[in-house]
Amino acid sequence: MNPRQLVLPMIMLLAQFCAFADEGTVQLQKANGPLVITMFTSPGAPLTAGPVAISLLVQDRNGLEPILDADVTLVLRSEASGAQIRVRATREPAQNKLLYSAPVKLEAPGKWQIGASIVQRGTRTETTGVMEVAPNTVMVVSYWGYIAFPPVLIVAFVVNGWLIRRKD
Question: What value does the CA radius of gyration of the chain take, rounded to a whole number of Å?
Fold first, then answer.
């Protein structure tokens, strides 16, 4: 194989690491009635308990044109505790103005039933799904390397000084 033939695959592999998206993870995509509904959550995968932004892309099923004049309501229910969250999603808080977005706080890990109700020109379309929410990681655990590094460095410096003095 000629080395020049490897250049394009190598560039493609490197481009994957440089590409950035909206940081949303697709949780649900369903075609229901006249609409196609795609639901995203951020922060990305895995979805953890705590503050979450839920975004919906609502499209016309025929031409996949985005629907921008709908009333969108989300209902989330924890299967474990039965806690229920009802929130209206709008386009104002979304960075991408094609999406309907709503911030929610998921209190507990586990399976959450999520339902979306979209009303557009008097027609109601509903869809449901399930998403898995992981336990929230403790911040100290995620930074253990940064916390442990200075004491390890200090101990290494002290041991180095002790070994140099012992040599003399």
Answer: 24
Please list, residue by residue across 98-118, b when 16 or more beta carbons sit within 10 angstroms of its beta carbon and e when fewer do: ebbbbebebeebeebebebbb
Could you read off the pLDDT of 46-100 as tens digits, one per residue? 788 888 899 999 999 888 899 999 999 999 999 988 889 999 999 888 788 889 9
- Rounded CA gap, 87 and 131, in Å? 17
146 and 74 within one domain: no
Q: DSSP state, 91?
A: S
pTM over the 0.85 mark: no
- Are 114 and 52 spatial neighbours (Cβ–Cβ below 8 Å)? no
| CA proximity to 126, closest of 114, 108, 138, 111 | 114
Tally of CB atoms within 10 A around 24? 22
User: What is the helix (H) or strand (E) element at residue 164, kind and residue range?
Assistant: helix 144-167
CA distance 53 to 94: 9
Of 101, 102, 105, 108, nearest to 133 by C-alpha is 108
Q: Does 127 lie in the same domain as 148?
A: no
The parent domain of residue 118 ranges over 3-137
